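Q: what sequence does this backbone want?
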């Protein structure tokens, strides 16, 4: 934020004091009465030891000239100014003064000195800075109380001989003193968020006791006077009046402040405001009256007006109000600014950036759910536009349009003022997304380009049409789920074989009474810091996944899990079972190895977490457990001891018919055609590996789109061969993972040796053992990783594209 664009001393809790001695003294008094936070910060700026809090042990720096100036202003200038103002006001009102000037001046000096001494007494046993600060506060309080009380008393012409002449100023002044002083102290406590410790030093405990003793003695004196003196009894109602001044004074001032603020708003209209560098908003009472709790009418409109022409100043004002009693105006203005920003998104590029500018916090709880909707839509549009192919962009944008249609229906049923405000925005976004998807389709057809439906590097989601096959695996899982023994399942397969894609789409392969609840353990659950966070994240992922299947689960509050996480989690599972009714939940935990690493590092307790899974299997028949990973349970012994009789479901290459469909008809209306030997060559190169089929076919489409339109939509064998180098390059992360993470140095050497022999070459076991004498264990590992296969008495690569990488 550029300070040159902001008014000096505006929109801050720590304004600078005016250099003029008289004006600065009046400013100090004003801060004390209306802006206690500014008063407090001014003391700290003069000397950090001027703390009100009893734990402050710092010493005053006596060479500080500002300290003497503060002393002079508080104890000499302010009493004189107050005396002068009251005397002048009474003279203007025509009140007979009599001996008032002299008696009032002497009385003012007396109460100021008495108040200072009383405040200092409150700091007995503490640092001198604390005692000095309390002397300032109580001295100023007594000064204000005396001024107001005697001014009112004499302006009403009370007889000096009557009891009211003493009771009114005494009662009202005493009430004002204790109305202001404790608020300053309380403000300091909140500011520092300090609490009394049971292990505080003895000297501090003595200090608190002495301070309390001073208060008790003073209170006993007042009570004694109350019972023996009728004048003090008369003062009791006015004591109450003084004590409650901060309750009724804002109400009395409200009509005048409303007129003042309305005038400022009128003068800040654009036709006038443009002639000035700075706005008049800084003079609004919201920025100088901290006691006003009643909403100030029109403040939100004034903020918006300033934001329109002076954004830096407007944002500073909003930031200030967010910590004040008028935060409602800052929130209302921010909501309208968000609405205008979202409404200003005129194309998909603007929509994709919208979530980066949205600030969603719990302070605006009414609007946060709406803003989250727009934020998620913006993120979805951003993800769609990040797709490499126009086809996938259209596919995801149509999904976005469907979500927006659903939200429009929800909005139409609501009469909430915010929903009504945001309804046209979400309608506009739907039209923009739909129109852009249609435009992409027209451009693609006009250029006769081939849309690539292939998804490289990320799992296929439920919404993506390209998911193919795996019916046999779905049938196998269904059979095991119906087993009365309720065994846990392990979906085991090498990386990029489509385990996560299968779990995302498993609902398509299972009966409707089985509700998949997919949880990626690579995400929030395994990164949690404790059991409560782990179970909360687990429940949250289960809720999100079940919602995609059309089932709404009860929510689980994070706070519930803090004291006894597993007990409350089990209680939540009871509610989930009720929500399931006659259905069965399939809890699918992907990448279980990540959770095992977290247990190994000591982040979670093995017995608690794995014992919880065993409890689910044994005692909750409505829940079925399916783990997925690229390792067997035998490789993780701790899991084997908890998940007894686990049944392995192996996921490997696609069936040939499934792979052919993925090549020739990945989606409806696919425009690329292959000659038969080109399809056969893709099958030979990939061995129906799902990731490699998509990788190679995606590169074929890139190659074809660069060719002349007359031959663009027909792929030949030459096209397949030409796409191989690009596939090896763009899929480098897949091949490098094999080389660096799945095999050791001996394994790399063996793979390089076999690869050098040529395509589909078989190397005998004897030859390999001659080259690598200790290769038995490594060969078994390569077989387990499905990198090589045994043929007769030798070995060869299972997948030709992987062999090409190791040449």
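A:
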């Amino acid at each position: 934020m550029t300070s040159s664009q902001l008014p000096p001393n505006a929109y801050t809790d720590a304004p600078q004091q005016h250099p003029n001695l008289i004006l600065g003294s009046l400013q100090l008094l004003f801060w004390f009465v209306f802006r206690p936070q500014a008063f407090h910060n001014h003391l700290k700026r003069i000397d950090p030891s001027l703390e009100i809090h009893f734990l402050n042990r710092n010493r005053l720096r006596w060479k500080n000239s500002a300290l003497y100036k503060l002393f002079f202003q508080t104890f000499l200038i302010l009493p004189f100014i107050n005396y002068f103002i009251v005397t002048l006001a009474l003279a203007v009102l025509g009140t007979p003064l009599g001996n008032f000037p002299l008696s009032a001046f002497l009385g003012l000096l007396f109460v100021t000195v008495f108040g200072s001494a009383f405040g200092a007494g409150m700091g007995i046993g503490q640092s001198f800075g604390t005692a000095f600060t309390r002397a300032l506060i109580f001295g100023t309080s007594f000064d204000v109380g005396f001024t107001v009380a005697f001014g009112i008393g004499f302006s009403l012409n009370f007889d000096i001989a009557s009891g009211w002449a003493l009771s009114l100023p005494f009662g009202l002044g005493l009430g004002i003193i204790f109305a202001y002083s404790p608020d300053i102290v309380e403000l300091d406590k909140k500011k520092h968020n300090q609490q009394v410790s049971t292990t505080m030093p003895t000297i501090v405990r003595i200090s608190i006791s002495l301070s309390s003793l001073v208060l008790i003695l003073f209170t006993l004196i007042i009570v004694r006077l109350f019972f023996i003196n009728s004048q003090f009894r008369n003062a009791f109602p006015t004591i109450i009046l003084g004590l409650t001044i901060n309750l009724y004074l804002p109400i009395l001032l409200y009509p005048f402040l409303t007129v003042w603020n309305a005038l400022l708003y009128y003068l800040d209209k654009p036709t006038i405001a443009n002639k000035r560098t700075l706005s008049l908003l800084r003079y609004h009472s919201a920025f100088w009256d901290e006691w006003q709790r009643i909403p100030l009418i029109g403040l939100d409109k004034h903020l918006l007006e300033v934001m329109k022409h002076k954004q830096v100043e407007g944002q500073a004002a909003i930031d200030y109000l967010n910590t004040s009693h008028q935060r409602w105006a800052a929130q209302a203005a921010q909501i309208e600014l968000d609405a205008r920003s979202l409404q200003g998104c005129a194309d998909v590029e603007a929509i994709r950036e919208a979530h980066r500018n949205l600030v969603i916090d719990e302070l605006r709880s009414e609007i946060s759910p709406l803003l989250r909707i727009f934020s998620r839509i913006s993120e979805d549009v951003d993800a769609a536009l990040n797709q490499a192919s126009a086809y996938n962009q259209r596919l995801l944008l149509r999904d976005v349009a469907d979500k927006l249609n659903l939200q429009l229906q929800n909005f139409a049923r609501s009469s909430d003022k915010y929903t009504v405000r945001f309804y046209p925005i979400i309608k506009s976004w739907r039209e923009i997304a739909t129109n852009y998807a249609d435009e992409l389709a027209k451009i693609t057809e006009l250029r006769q380009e081939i849309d690539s439906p292939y998804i490289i590097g990320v799992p296929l989601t439920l919404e993506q049409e390209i998911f193919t096959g795996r019916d046999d695996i779905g049938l196998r899982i269904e059979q095991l789920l119906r087993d009365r023994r309720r065994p846990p399942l392990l979906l085991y397969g090498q990386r990029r074989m489509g385990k996560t894609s299968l779990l995302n789409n498993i609902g398509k392969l299972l009966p409707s009474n089985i509700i998949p609840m997919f949880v990626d353990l690579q995400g929030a659950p395994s990164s949690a810091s404790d059991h409560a966070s782990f179970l909360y994240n687990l429940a949250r992922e289960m809720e999100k996944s079940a919602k995609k299947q059309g089932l709404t689960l009860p929510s689980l509050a994070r706070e519930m899990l803090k004291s006894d996480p597993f007990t409350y989690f089990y209680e939540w599972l009871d509610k989930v079972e009720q929500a399931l009714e006659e259905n069965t939940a399939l809890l699918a935990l992907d990448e279980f190895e990540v959770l095992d690493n977290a247990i190994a590092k000591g982040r979670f307790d093995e017995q608690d977490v794995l014992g919880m899974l065993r409890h689910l299997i044994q005692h909750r028949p409505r829940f079925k457990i399916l783990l997925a990973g690229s390792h067997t349970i035998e490789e993780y012994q701790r899991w084997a001891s908890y998940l007894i009789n686990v049944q392995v479901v192996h996921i490997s290459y696609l069936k040939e018919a499934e792979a052919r469909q993925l090549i020739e008809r990945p989606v409806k209306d696919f425009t690329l055609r292959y000659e038969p030997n080109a399809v056969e060559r893709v099958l030979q190169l990939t061995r129906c590996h799902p990731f490699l089929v998509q990788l190679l076919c995606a590169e074929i489409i890139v190659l074809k789109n660069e060719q002349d339109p007359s031959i663009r939509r027909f792929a030949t064998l030459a096209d397949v061969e030409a796409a191989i180098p690009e596939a090896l390059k763009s899929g480098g992360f897949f091949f490098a993972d094999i080389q660096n993470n799945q095999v050791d140095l001996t394994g790399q050497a063996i793979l390089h040796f076999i690869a050098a022999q040529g395509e589909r070459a078989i190397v005998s076991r004897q030859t390999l053992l001659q080259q690598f004498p200790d290769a038995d264990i490594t060969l078994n590992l390569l077989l387990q990783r499905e990198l090589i296969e045994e043929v007769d008495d030798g070995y060869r690569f299972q997948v030709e594209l992987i062999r090409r990488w190791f040449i």
